[in-house]
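$ ./design --mode recover --in tokens.txt
reading tokens...
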């Protein structure tokens, strides 16, 4: 794979220590982001996420869709999940991101938040299906949302507003030391889609 010299360059690490988060800013234009957003809203196989916590079964307002190179099956929050074959537009974006980062991704978890009252609680992407020092590329489409990191030991918080078309990349020890969350807000009335390209362990 060749490195694209004209590809967007990341800003310096957004985390002060114990991890590495790069901000590639607007990776695609606002117009392109809007086109992808409308397409994915319509064409991805959205379904409400499920979790089993303390013996109880929960269904989240947020919706998810999971795609992969192969038929992957993994357990997360006590629920078995299966990946779908790539959507062609998702594959185009994946290849564009891979070229910029000189990395390969074999799966994508898509999240759909209909409005600001839907968020994602504090968590790390550190389950058994990902390597410890995994790279995750996260592309935002649609409404701007507040995204935060919180260090597990020091509790220090780093906040950012993720905008449509913006790409951030989490690397290295980030998942071992930091949790992240999408904060809820009554003020956000528009939907948002997030695509996280991942390196699923085979
Ligand atoms: O919506 C986002 O930007 C965050 C998604 C996320 O945290 C995840 O998929 O693990």
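writing sequence...
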């Amino acid at each position: 794979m060749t490195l694209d010299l004209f590809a967007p360059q990341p800003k310096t690490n957004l985390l002060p220590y114990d991890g590495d988060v790069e901000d590639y800013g607007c990776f695609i234009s606002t117009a392109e982001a809007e086109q992808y957003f409308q397409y994915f809203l319509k064409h991805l196989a959205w379904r409400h996420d499920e979790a089993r916590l303390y013996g109880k079964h929960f269904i989240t307002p947020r919706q998810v869709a999971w795609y992969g190179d192969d038929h992957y099956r993994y357990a997360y929050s006590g629920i078995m999940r299966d990946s779908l074959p790539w959507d062609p537009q998702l594959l185009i974006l994946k290849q564009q991101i891979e070229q910029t980062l000189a990395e390969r991704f074999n799966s994508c978890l898509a999240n759909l938040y209909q409005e600001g009252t839907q968020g994602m609680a504090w968590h790390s992407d550190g389950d058994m299906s990902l390597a410890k020092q995994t790279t995750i590329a996260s592309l935002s489409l649609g409404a701007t949302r507040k995204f935060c990191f919180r260090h597990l030991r020091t509790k220090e918080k780093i906040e950012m507003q993720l905008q449509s078309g913006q790409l951030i990349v989490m690397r290295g020890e980030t998942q071992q030391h930091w949790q992240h969350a999408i904060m809820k807000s009554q003020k956000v009335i528009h939907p948002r889609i997030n695509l996280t390209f991942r390196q699923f362990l085979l």
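exit 0
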